[in-house]
Amino acid sequence: MSLIKKSLKTLLLVPLVDAALSLACYIVDPFLQPHTFVGPHDINRLLSVYLGPRPGEKSAMTFEAYHARVMSLAKDKKAPIDAPVFGQPITYFGPFPSNSYVTALSFMEAAAGDVRDPAALARLMENRHRILGLFMDAEKRDEIQTILAKPLHETAVSFAAYLQGAFTFYTNAPDDARAFFVKASAAPAPSLWTRISSFFGQKPSTWLAESALYMEGRCLLVAAQAAMSAYDLPAEGNDKLDRKKLSQARTTFARYLKAYPEGLYADSIKNLDRKFDRLEGHAQELNAKLRALVVETFKKDPLSSQAYDALDEYMNYFTGEPDPHQDAPLALAVHILSRIHALKEETLRVLLAGVNARAKDFAPYPGLASFLKALLLTNLKAYKDVVALDQTATHPLNKVQQGTQILRAKAQLIQKDPQGALETLHALKKSLTDDHLDLLLMRTHMILASPPETLLQDAVSPRVRELYLERFCPTQAIERLMEDKSLPKEVKSIVETAYTRRLLLEGSFEKAIEKKLLSKDEQKEVEAYLKDKNTPQAQLRMGQWLEENISPWHGLIQDDDNLEEECPECKPADLALVAPIHYFIKALSLPGSGNSDTQAEVLHRLTGVCFRGNEPAYSCLWVHTWWEDQALKAIHDKDVPKWFHMLHTRFKTSSWAKKTPYHY
Prior knowledge:
Elements: H1 3-13, H2 43-51, H3 63-73, H4 83-86, H5 101-114, H6 118-132, H7 141-148, H8 157-170, H9 174-185, H10 192-199, H11 207-224, H12 234-237, H13 243-259, H14 266-279, H15 283-300, H16 306-317, H17 329-339, H18 345-356, H19 359-362, H20 368-379, H21 383-387, H22 399-414, H23 418-429, H24 435-447, H25 452-458, H26 462-472, H27 475-482, H28 489-505, H29 509-514, H30 520-531, H31 536-549, H32 563-566, H33 580-589, H34 597-610, E1 611-612, E2 615-616, H35 618-621, H36 630-650, H37 655-658
Antiparallel strand pairs: 1-2
Helix pairs in contact: 3-5, 5-6, 6-8, 8-9, 9-11, 11-13, 15-16, 18-20, 20-22, 22-23, 23-24, 26-28, 27-28, 30-31, 31-33, 33-34, 34-36
């Protein structure tokens, strides 16, 4: 890969840096993959170890199964449902989980049982199918509405009204949708066929009446929150909550439970009771119900599909203090991981005592107790106790236990035991391949002052190798590696790339050519610059080329709060970077710029690219916080206003002035 392409890849994938974060130890993390072991805040990864993948993540009803089932619904009635109608793509996941295969089929099954006209039944099925794809193509909404409005056989009228209500509900018009559901619930008198079937013991379906009544309540509940945003907390959102509609929603759900105490949506309505508590700010009642929800869910079936939902709701809305001696282990883990950095020392100690006292309860979740202990002890800065944690239960494939050992290795570094950390990390390498593991290995070797060759052989991640060579390895060591004939070919290539970038970043173009390190295109660009480097045009061209193609590593690794303690020796190599801005400034100082278009473009790049008002351009300055760099701050405060004024007076009619609408 050419250096330009490699640098572009780096530039595009570099993460943003939190300017407020100042650490003595700058560990650069340009484009490492997310770690695979469980760490602080990794709630979903932790739960996946014990509950498996979330329902629907790896499996969903196939289109073929959906198609076959729909076709079978009207088979006896010979409804003219054409295959092309159901051959179009359908969506399973959307903003409304109720717009899914399962709910679509329940509607179709009910319609197939009650609608006597084959053509009307086919239309209903086709329309319900179209609504499934509503969120794939918003432009289809008008077309769907037109189709839904067409008249149907009298036995299909109530089902058509229900569909119009569903469509309107999914398009965020709950008040309008409610009117359709009310109409759908007013079904006509039972047909002769229904009365005959009932006479022979076949009970008529209540699906339409049940579902329409339930959706009336749903519409009222959504409409009650119409003025609220996702950021409105219950106490702050009270003035925006339509209490009349909220009360009507409660009344409607009560009507449903009275009519259908064991109905299709009885459990849903009972669960929505927590929603009412949340909206009305009944925190104490809500906390009690959430705790009971988790306990009951795991008591009934700890591996059920409801386990994720219960824990998600608990994590998002439980505002009380956990009971470390009674709460379900996974609920306790969710609470700790979601709030670990906000917990006070006293709470940390209470939680630690609770985990220590419940070995039997944690037994179904291998490694969980040790991981929580390691996490709590780390936040208590009890690093000696983290190192002393029992390792005998470590399973090579358990990501939770791997996370415990990562915390243990970090504690060993803080305890000034890099050799012990190295042993812990080497044990992990037998089962864990991870960029962040290699990053921790890099830190450890830098503390041990290991030779670059040792580090490069131990940390096998290409990203970490590149990171070390380009940002941390001393230039003299890289030059020595360049002469090492024993290096593996892939390592030699990374060393050459790193050395080439160093030379370009520091403006050592002649040496880059001498060492024959540049690609054909790169050499052409550099030679053109060296030939005319005393002209404004050459300086402008080189600055622009560096700005667009070459960028030094930057960014802070922010995966923990102990970085400074772990690795005070991890300091970047001292590079004499010559950023693009220096070439632009040089272009202004050379004779021959005068009133040329070149000078106008240079002024544009200095004021409209390098300094966009108070927004620093990393691609031009190669720093994120120019206000902390005294030289750049002086340029911003004194020179930039002059350059801007010159651009908009001397070159006010130029295209460059029009591209620079920033005023100082």
